[in-house]
Amino acid sequence: MAANGASCEQPQKRTGAKDKQNDSSVRDRRQKDKEERLSMVLWRRPVTTLHYFLLETLIKLKELTLKLWQRRGTVFLFLVLCSLFSIAYSTEGAHQQYVQYLEKKFLWCAYWVGLGILSSVGLGTGLHTFLLYLGPHIASVTLAAYECGSTDFPEPPYPDQIVCPQGGAVEGSISLLSIMSKVRLEACMWGAGTAIGELPPYFMARAARQSGADPDDEDYEEFEEMLEQAEGAQDFVTRAKLGVQHMVQKVGFFGILACASIPNPLFDLAGITCGHFLVPFWTFFGATLIGKAIIKMHIQKLFVIITFSKHIVEQMVSLIGSVPKLGPSLQKPFSQYLEAQRNKLHHAGGSAPADENWLSWVFEKVVLVMVCYFVISIVNSMAQSYAKRLQQLRHSEEKTK
Annotated region Disordered: where (predicted)? Predict the structure, then answer.
């Protein structure tokens, strides 16, 4: 009996050793594939990267066309509504003022929703549209409100250009609530866009869990590895990710709401967690929408408005001037910029001064650089996605041989 028991243990040990060896070879292969994909960037392999980008774009367009064909009823209804609106838009009548109002509001909301989506969805990166667009817009409205003594800016030219209303400023008539109310639509639409941008990780993880297939996403692979290595994790990043995962999994709606209501770079993990554990769609999206479009946006709005309130800005400029040696030279362009903005507010159609302030020039160049980086990152990400398709095809062919 003892001899039989020993003979049974030996095959089990061999099988276990073989499984470990297979797991190790799979991890090595994945790491090698990942390094190969990460080398697919414009500054290393420009021709191949652009070629793969174009091929991946064609594949995505084909997949989109198939999805639209599968939902052709919804697409047809959408086209009918667009046709009716086009007829109403081109037909003269008393309804034109309402059509133009709806068009203006729709385009304005779509603009901020689109920027919000770009902020949270970037195929590997995100365009920081709050810092580049929404934050400066709120700051401009705040500075104008304190200078004009009112938020009733004439429309047009607002929102394309802010001009003080006729009648002069009334000291003390501006409050935080009035400024927050003025920018509430833009902020909430931007927040709603960021919530929509969090849906792809959720759907990807949910589809992978339901189908049992390996998802085509590195974030999900990292998520599964993190769950496997959860015991004994010591580094801060892993513990932070585990904290988000546990909060979302155990607390549910209010856990998702808490994660979405604060600036949280790990929120992608919350979407993957909800998809992996099959959290209902409206539980995830409802909590994300409330957290991002209402709670977090009001916190961010309040921070920007307080930072750019009149007395805070004046104190900041005076503090810059108090810097030893460099203070006066640094203070001058800030003072000139603020003075130029004040002059614009009191002159409708006012143009920028001939000697453009260097602060405006620097900001424009920063925006240009960040947008270029965003576009380049999308090209790289699409090329890497196509490279992953080729790797998966190669591995499947190797298995069949």
Answer: 1-32
